[in-house]
Amino acid sequence: MSETARAVQATAPVERRAAAIEAALEAQGWKAGEGIAEATRKVEEEWLPANGARLVAKAWCDPDFKRRLLADGRAAALELGFEFPRHHRHLVVLENTPAVHNVICCTLCSCTAFTIIGLPPDWYKDLEYRARVVRESRTVLKEMGLELPPEVEIRVWDTTADTRYVVLPMQPPGTIGWPEERLAGIVTRDSMIGVARL
Amino acid sequence: MDGIHDLGGRQGFGPVRHAPDAPAFHAAWEKRINALYGLAVRRGVFNMDEYRHAIERMEPRHYLSASYYERTLTSLATLCVEKGVVTREELERRAEGAFPLALPAAAGRTNLVTRPRLAVGDRVRVRDDHVPGHVRMPAYIRGKRGVVVGVSPAYPFPDAHAHGVAAEDERTCDVRFSSIELWPDAAEPAMVHAGVFESYLERDGSDGR
């Protein structure tokens, strides 16, 4: 198709374009179906926010583990058997305190520690969050249901390189003494992104 | 490149469309495309920097109107065509319509020879660089002053890695900026951090160092 013809021909619907590239790669001998099955299994069964929730709950219960987690998040996550893609060489764990609240984003695309907190939700990848959270973090958090006291310092972390970040939320006072498994059940993806407190 | 993807601090956007249990995928084709691009990376067809840059090279109106996984699809198809794996004609024949791809890349660049070797606590200034190819320096930090609060292991240098240019791996610094330094009198107070390659940085001489 010439550029002129392309300009006047309607763009194929996105589903047909997706099927076209898949079929073209199959025709090249790619085992697309196997790759898709494997990736779907990882997304649905392995790369879950429950992984990060276990890290958080263990940090709340075990001060030594928390020290290791804050010193080297990747090594601590590997201790529990979690995996990282090859390009995630560094995991920085950001501890929330009564005086400091951390929130993560990726203004350039959608980077996240997805093996630990799951694939990012759609709003994290949308233009609005990416544009606004670095410049008007307090308002954005408030709109998302998190109104922080004015004295709390907000720290925004923009994932512009291959270092990955995860927020260590504060443990709710009413849960002190709970067993680790029960604590893991209250840790949400949003709290590890930093747009919610528990 | 100063592309449309570089959104940090842009004004005029409305509320975040937030839902606590927001899904990562909305349609079956999105999962399939996400898997296919991962497969292409594992097969060595392209690397993550080439993948990101092909998204950035999308025509701006296309970028802004495309869903997240349409951007993934466009990057995958663009790189498969550019690398000679498939042809655009085949894609358009199979899709029975036009298949918009990203626009061609400009030249890449290698590391800065004089880049500083930085440590936590160092005061830095982001270089006033304008880069036509792939770069992971968001425009909102360009020329701004901050302090190093963390240092990473070495990574492939994106400005080179996205363009097949030889370069040394280099470390990134987590640099802390005040939002008030980034947008004087035009931002809410906060500390904003970015992961910044050493080639994008110089020591800040304003404190006498």
List keywords for this structure.
heterodimer, A: 198 residues, alpha/beta, Nitrile Hydratase, Chain A, 2 domains, two-stranded parallel ribbon, 12 helices, B: alpha+beta, Cyclin A, domain 1, SH3 type barrels, 5-stranded antiparallel beta sheet, 5 strands, 29% helix
Give the SSE layout.
The complex is a heterodimer of chains A (about 200) and B (about 210).
Chain A: H1 3-8, H2 14-27, H3 32-46, H4 49-61, H5 63-71, H6 73-79, E1 90-95, E2 100-105, H7 114-117, H8 122-125, H9 127-132, H10 137-143, E3 153-158, E4 163-168, H11 180-184, H12 189-193
Parallel strand pairs in A: 1-4, 2-3
Chain B: H1 28-42, H2 48-56, H3 60-65, H4 68-82, H5 88-95, E1 123-126, E2 145-155, H6 158-161, E3 170-178, H7 179-182, E4 191-197, E5 201-203
Helix pairs in contact in B: 1-4, 2-4
Model description:
The complex is a heterodimer of chains A (198) and B (209). Chain A has 198 residues and is α/β, with parallel strands linked by helices. Chain A folds into 2 domains: 3-44, no CATH class; 48-193, Nitrile Hydratase, Chain A. Chain A contains 12 helices and 4 strands, in the order ααααααββααααββαα. In chain A, the strands form 2 sheets. Chain A has a two-stranded parallel sheet. A two-stranded parallel sheet of chain A has the order 2-3. The mean pLDDT of chain A is 95. Chain B has helices at residues 28-42, 48-56, 60-65, 68-82, 88-95, 158-161, 179-182, and strands spanning 123-126, 145-155, 170-178, 191-197, 201-203. A 5-stranded antiparallel β-sheet of chain B has the order 4-3-2-1-5. At the A-B interface, helix 2, helix 3, helix 8, helix 9 and helix 10 of A face helix 1, helix 2, helix 4, helix 5 and strand 2 of B. Strand 3 of chain A pairs parallel with strand 4 (191-197) of chain B.
